[in-house]
Inverse folding.
């Protein structure tokens, strides 16, 4: 069982708000959980100004320490236009098989703008998209996952991140298809901007090629006052390439308890 904590010092893009204007606008789809890449892959963050609204935002990524990493871009898109910013895993990782979890950031500037965002994990050699993650209006503070399968050659990773200013306090782990805990668990007490993950290798559950284990990622916050934004990934042990990406179910656009990434205050 592998555990790793990402200490985030979010000096940039750091204020969480439950602004009704963002939650009620289905075009404000700019929030993401953690996304992992390895060497030989590129993480691409896309935004579209869906007509008739423009998109004015700062695009970028946070690394494992919570600091901005790689390129960033300020976009001012008229309706119908789009833009992308890309972060090549080769600039972050020296060895194949190692993985890095990153947080795509779309900091929307002020009111009167809406951006529809998406993230792609792209293979550098062939240019093929391996993972596509749609942006969301926001996420419920108590994430729920369905069941997923892995083999002896794979590992499932459960990520959680605390969107500022709300902490993530609780427990993460996995159960089998009958609801029995498997592989141990991790108590988490993350301040705003911190993240962590828990790995469950398939070779601890099955022993031969062709066998599969069905597991359920579980995130249990201690109270409604905490918000743990989660994602699950199944990746290959040999090269660290993601085979399956499982985002949390997003909030409905009418939700009043959605955890969202904030717009930049007007005038910034």
């Amino acid at each position: 069982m592998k555990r790793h904590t990402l200490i985030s010092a979010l000096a940039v893009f750091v204020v969480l708000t439950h602004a009704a204007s963002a939650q009620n606008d289905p075009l404000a789809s700019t929030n993401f959980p953690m996304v992992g890449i390895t060497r030989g892959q590129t993480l691409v963050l896309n935004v579209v100004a869906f007509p008739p609204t423009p998109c004015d935002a700062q695009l970028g990524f946070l690394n494992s320490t919570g600091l901005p990493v790689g390129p960033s871009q300020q976009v001012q898109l008229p309706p119908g236009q789009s833009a992308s910013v890309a972060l090549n895993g080769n600039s972050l990782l020296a060895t194949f098989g190692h993985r890095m979890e990153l947080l795509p950031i779309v900091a929307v500037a002020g009111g009167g703008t809406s951006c529809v965002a998406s993230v792609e994990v792209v293979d550098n050699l062939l240019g093929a998209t391996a993972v596509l993650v749609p942006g969301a209006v926001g996420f419920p503070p108590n994430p729920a996952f369905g069941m997923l399968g892995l083999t002896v050659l794979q590992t499932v990773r459960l990520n959680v991140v605390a969107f500022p200013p709300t902490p993530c306090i609780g427990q993460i782990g996995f159960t089998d298809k009958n609801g029995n805990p498997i592989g141990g668990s991790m108590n988490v007490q993350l301040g705003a901007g911190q993240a962590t993950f828990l790995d469950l290798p398939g070779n601890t559950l099955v022993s031969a090629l062709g066998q599969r284990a069905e597991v359920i990622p579980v995130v249990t916050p201690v109270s409604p006052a905490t918000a743990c934004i989660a994602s699950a990934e199944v990746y290959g042990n040999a090269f660290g390439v993601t085979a399956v990406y499982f985002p949390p179910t997003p909030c409905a656009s009418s939700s009043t308890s959605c955890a969202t990434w904030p717009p930049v205050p007007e005038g910034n």
In short: Residues 20-23 form the longest helix (4 residues). Confidence is low (pLDDT under 50) at residues 2-24. Helices lie at 20-23. The chain has one helix and 17 strands.
